[in-house]
Amino acid sequence: MEIKQSLPVGVFYLISELILSFFIASIVKLLEPNIPIIQILFYRYLLCLPLLIIYGLSKHGIRVLLVNNIKLLLLRIICGFLGLAMWFLAVAKIDMSLATVLFNTMPLFITILSVIIAREVVGLRRSLAVLTGFFGVVFIILPINGSFNFSGVIYSLLGAIFAGLMFVFIRMLGRTNASIPTAIWYNSFGVLASLIIFFIIENNFYNSLAILVHKDLPWNYLLALGFLASFQQFCLAESHRYADASALAPFHYLAVPIGIAFGVILFNETITVKFITGAVIIVASNYYIFVREKTHSQI
Length: 299
Hints:
Layout: H1 7-31, H2 37-60, H3 70-93, H4 96-103, H5 106-117, H6 124-141, H7 150-173, H8 179-202, H9 205-212, H10 219-242, H11 245-248, H12 255-267, H13 273-298
Helix pairs in contact: 1-3, 1-10, 1-12, 2-8, 2-10, 3-4, 3-7, 3-8, 4-7, 4-12, 5-6, 5-7, 5-13, 6-13
């Protein structure tokens, strides 16, 4: 059945996806002091699969696992796994508002990576926009004092890099593969990879199994994590069914005010004028890059 394009419907699904992603991040932030990030990742991947598979089977039938470009799929999966791991580590270490703003440097890295990987030509204006965006990052994080969590900032920026790589590969992959089969492969890989890493860290197979299935784990939070992740990926896939990625791109910046709102309301984070100024610089430079890319593609 052909889906009629509708930008309002696509934006609705995208905003829903953003809100769900911050509920997930909030659960991670609450769980991390008592549960290692790699264990949280394992349950996030594992418990989101059932609903995702049911939806995939209803939409694609027995072709639910069919992919056409295994090499690109593997690159997308690896970068997605590393990007999500870095994002979880970031929200666990620093304020959610700061992690969100830094993670939204992703378009800056996409521009740089497009030059390196796809051999795209980037003009002077976009290059200056990239530099301006990174100035915004420096403006926010300086000066560094004793209470500054440098590792959280690094995790956020690494997450942006890996997410940027992931979206470069998704762009290439989307030409030949449907989104749900890709998501199922990605989450299945996440289950296996996080489990192996967890076993290596614990260095004891039986002890690892005991920890994973311990009755005192906060199963309500873990189940909520997987449940929300299923609907997050469903909303993301649906948003791109109803609207083109280029039309949805500006609305991704709503992640910044949404992330700040979650940080202030749920975790009593303090927002300063300096922070807002840096955030505006980063978002404005990213939006300018989007406008220039769109203009360039129409020439």
